[in-house]
Design a protein that fits this description.
30% strand, disordered C terminus, 3 helices, four-stranded mixed β-sheet, three-stranded antiparallel β-sheet, 2 domains, Ribosomal Protein L15, Chain: K, domain 2, alpha/beta
Length: 134
């Protein structure tokens, strides 16, 4: 899988016959099968055509938008299919008697440990007071 980095402001992306093609000054620079693209990183104000956006979203290819200096601007990513995949797995595991106790322990054990440590610190922080009988 390949990451495509585009840094030239006048570059453009097009989809043709299951290939993603990158053009710069009307010349084709890159031609790669869409299924071989893992992500696209755009530096600066580079416009994506609606057709390209639809294809990358349908193929679960994230697009990262950065300034020319590399500062994060935003991300285009289709999360609906990811949520569906995780939700299906979660539903299957809710009925699994072996998974439920281990997941519960993973979730609650650290919380109980933190609460116990916090309680110990609170108890240690209380100053001791002694009364003398006169």
């Amino acid at each position: 899988m390949s990451t495509i980095y585009i840094t030239e402001q006048d570059a453009s992306l097009k989809i043709q016959h299951h290939y993603l093609k990158v053009f710069h000054q009307q010349k084709q620079c890159i031609c790669i099968r869409i299924r071989n693209v893992s992500q696209i990183i755009l530096f600066g104000n580079i416009h994506l055509l609606k057709e390209v956006m639809k294809i990358v979203l349908s193929h679960q290819i994230p697009v990262l938008y950065l300034t020319p200096d590399g500062e994060f601007l935003g991300r285009l990513e289709n999360t609906s299919q990811l949520k569906r995949k995780y939700l299906t797995n979660q539903r299957q595991h809710t009925r699994d008697v072996e998974v439920i106790p281990s997941v519960s322990e993973l979730v609650f054990h650290p919380k109980i440990g933190v609460a116990a440590r916090q309680h110990t610190r609170d108890v240690e922080a209380i100053p001791s007071v002694s009364f003398a009988n006169a």
